């Protein structure tokens, strides 16, 4: 068969999601097989042959295929991990920044940065670095030096609001600082952070790439195969590898980014379809912001809606998201008790944490992150019909308001 993956520029995004790994298939199977073996027969020295596989912590056939697809779709070279947090921590160990410029964002990220700091503490207690320890974490917008890492989460958890990635990368590169973008909330084909100058990109693959709330995984995307191989070599001894079943589920989900082509006017891709439904739902809910009654939403229910699509910025936000904005946003209700209850009054949105799956979710974010406004409900939009989701919000908001 013709090897379509030889030149990715010849194919469109959804074709690549299905064919980018064709040349790595070593059987006549059309659907990729599940491999669960942790170890492999080694070639007889008299008949040197074999597939190069030794032990599953080093590599597996399915993981290699997933990395090929993820790398191609992200326009870089991908390395997978057991979770989004393990990929983030692996990135820190790889970059070894002197200081990290970071704002708010996902609480787990701040958790492993504390561990990184603790480790630096041991090293520096007996060195000149000691003075710098308390300065290890700096404000996202602080002045940068060579050796700094800018950790940019865009879109930002939990609001879905975004940063001007291009502006941050230009500012950092001027002084020799590195930029990592956590692009979990907006995977390709919504945006490509490497195109905006990011040096390294991470995604919690648990969210949009896996897309079905059934597989935990993380991915780092870098610009060269050489750097990807350094990460793989570290990963081999850290042991934070993507499990065999997870690798298979992820590969299957990446194929299924193709969705609903038969529907008139609907988008071809799972993630872009979620993105479009979200933009419409956000615009509709936002009409009730400031406590206004709107189209069946009761008065005094919604204080504000936060999302990139309603964010006021003075830079070209559309250019950064050519495929649409992310499918996670936040609604600030008018009271803490309403925000606590709405996730349980909604019927199509499950009251659960996480995002990116085909099922819509809503959660009172304060319960996981006490730094967040206690009136905030984080919403992840799945693949249900827009009209059904609107109706669900009408009835849930009426219920908590009465
Ligand atoms: C979920 C998430 C993570 C962590 O990913 P896991 O796969 O849960 O370990 C990191 N960053 C962001 C923005 C996330 O939403």
Automatic annotation (TrEMBL):
It comes from the Eukaryota. GO terms for biological process: transsulfuration. Keywords: Pyridoxal phosphate. The keyword Nucleotide-binding does not apply. InterPro entries: Cys/Met-Metab_PyrdxlP-dep_enz, Cys_met_metab_PP, PyrdxlP-dep_Trfase, PyrdxlP-dep_Trfase_major, PyrdxlP-dep_Trfase_small. GO terms for cellular component: cytoplasm. The modification N6-(pyridoxal phosphate)lysine is found at residue 207. The keyword Membrane does not apply. Residues 29-53 are annotated as: Disordered. Signal peptide: none annotated. GO terms for molecular function: carbon-sulfur lyase activity; pyridoxal phosphate binding. Its cofactor is pyridoxal 5'-phosphate. Belongs to the trans-sulfuration enzymes family. This is Cystathionine gamma-synthase. It comes from Umbelopsis vinacea.
């Amino acid at each position: 068969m013709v090897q379509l993956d030889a030149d990715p520029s010849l194919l469109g995004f959804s074709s690549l999601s299905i064919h980018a790994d064709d040349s790595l298939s070593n059987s006549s199977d059309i659907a990729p097989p599940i491999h669960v073996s942790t170890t492999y027969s080694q070639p007889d020295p008299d008949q040197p042959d074999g597939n190069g596989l030794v032990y599953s912590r080093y590599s597996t056939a399915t993981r290699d295929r997933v990395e090929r697809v993820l790398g191609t779709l992200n326009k870089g070279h991908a390395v997978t991990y057991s979770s989004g947090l393990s990929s983030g921590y692996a990135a820190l160990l790889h970059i070894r920044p002197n200081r990290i410029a970071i704002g708010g964002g996902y609480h787990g990220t701040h958790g492993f940065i504390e561990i990184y700091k603790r480790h630096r503490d041991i090293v520096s207690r007996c060195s000149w670095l000691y003075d710098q320890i308390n300065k290890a974490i700096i404000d996202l917008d602080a002045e940068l030096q060579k050796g700094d890492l800018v950790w940019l989460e865009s879109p930002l958890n939990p609001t879905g609001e975004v940063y001007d990635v291009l502006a941050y990368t230009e500012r950092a590169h001027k002084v020799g600082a590195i930029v990592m973008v956590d692009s979990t909330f907006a995977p390709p084909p919504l945006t490509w952070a490497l195109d905006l100058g990011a040096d390294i990109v991470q995604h919690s693959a648990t969210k949009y790439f896996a897309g079905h709330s059934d597989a935990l995984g993380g991915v780092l995307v870098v610009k060269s195969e050489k750097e990807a191989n350094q990460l793989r070599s570290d990963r081999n001894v850290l042991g934070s590898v993507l499990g065999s079943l997870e690798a298979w589920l992820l590969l299957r989900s990446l194929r299924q980014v193709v969705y609903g082509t038969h529907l008139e006017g609907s988008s071809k891709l799972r993630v872009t379809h979620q993105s479009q439904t979200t933009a419409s739902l956000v615009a509709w809910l936002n009409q009730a912001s400031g406590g206004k009654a709107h189209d069946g939403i009761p008065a005094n229910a919604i204080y504000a809606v936060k999302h990139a699509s309603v964010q006021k910025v003075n830079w070209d936000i559309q250019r950064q998201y050519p495929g649409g904005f992310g499918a996670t946003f936040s609604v600030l209700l008018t009271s803490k008790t309403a925000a606590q209850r709405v996730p349980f009054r909604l019927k199509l949105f499950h009251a659960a944490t996480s995002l990116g799956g085909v099922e819509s979710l809503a959660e009172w974010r304060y319960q996981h992150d006490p730094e967040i406004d206690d009136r905030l409900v984080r919403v992840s939009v799945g693949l249900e019909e827009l009209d059904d989701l609107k109706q669900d919000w009408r009835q849930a908001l009426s219920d908590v308001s009465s």
